Amino acid sequence: MENITAKKKFGQNFLKDETVLRKIVEAMPNNDNKIVEIGPGLGDLTKFLVDVKSVDAFEVDTDLCKLLQKKFEKEIATKQLRIHCGDVLTAWKSELIDESYDLVANLPYYIATNIILKALADPKCKNILVMVQLEVAEKFCAHEGDKVFGALSIITQSAGEARLVVKVPPTAFEPQPKIDSAVFLIQKQSDRFDKDFESMLRVAFTQPRKTLMKNLSAVYEKNILQEVFEKLSLAQTIRPHQVCTDDYHQLYKLTRSLDG
Ligand code: SAM
């Protein structure tokens, strides 16, 4: 593997299965947006991306940055590829990318949720096509009533639509991870959530098996909640995963207006 030893601390599992790489590229929305890739690694996905789009890639591992700079000398010279060497969580500043972009990446799993939430909150990001742990992908793609429906599913539905593209077994990677992975796509359509909405959701799902009323009463007055639940025709016994995204938005608006 190009004289590089995978570093566990950076979540390095390199995707080697060409069929999966092609499926990612095929699922890319057809538009003129540039691409932000996080964790290009050995450049196997990057190679496909720079063929069709201009790419900004963030890589934390300096050994890999050097390798990528050699491998993509031509694309870097023509500005088809920009490599930002450093931790994406500090290096990725909104002003770095001054146009609409799609996030396409086989993400480092230990920070995947964090990165996806950041991209969802960024109006310049239009679509998110990423590989993550299967369990995490299922949470982002879940619908009301599903067992894993939760805060991440509602945040996603507030921004657009999500769908699972392909499930990926450990054998597609080198070295092989212990868990299954999946690629999923979020096509953003609106920006209906903000940090306060996200905080309310966290409270709503603090104890998923308890009633929504019980969870929310940690923060809101009981009489306000009773009034809001009545207005929305929500039973007081309803559990957090049984309430749809639109009702969460109504609930958020009404509790804020009544709470003063
Ligand atoms: N894209 C490559 C592929 O598909 O084979 C590599 C994917 S590997 C799962 C994750 C990559 O993210 C690694 O190259 C790793 O070094 C990089 N990475 C990990 N933490 C990072 C961070 N905080 N900022 C930027 N890159 C990071």
Automatic annotation (TrEMBL):
Pfam families: RrnaAD. Residues 20-190 form the Ribosomal RNA adenine methylase transferase N-terminal domain. Its main location: cytoplasm. One of its GO terms (cellular component) is cytosol. InterPro entries: KsgA/Erm, rRNA_Ade_diMease-like_C, rRNA_Ade_Mease_Trfase_CS, rRNA_Ade_methylase_Trfase_N, rRNA_adenine_dimethylase, SAM-dependent_MTases_sf. It comes from the Bacteria. It is found in: Cytoplasm. HAMAP family: 16SrRNA_methyltr_A (MF_00607). PANTHER family: DIMETHYLADENOSINE TRANSFERASE (PTHR11727), DIMETHYLADENOSINE TRANSFERASE-RELATED (PTHR11727:SF7). This is Ribosomal RNA small subunit methyltransferase A.
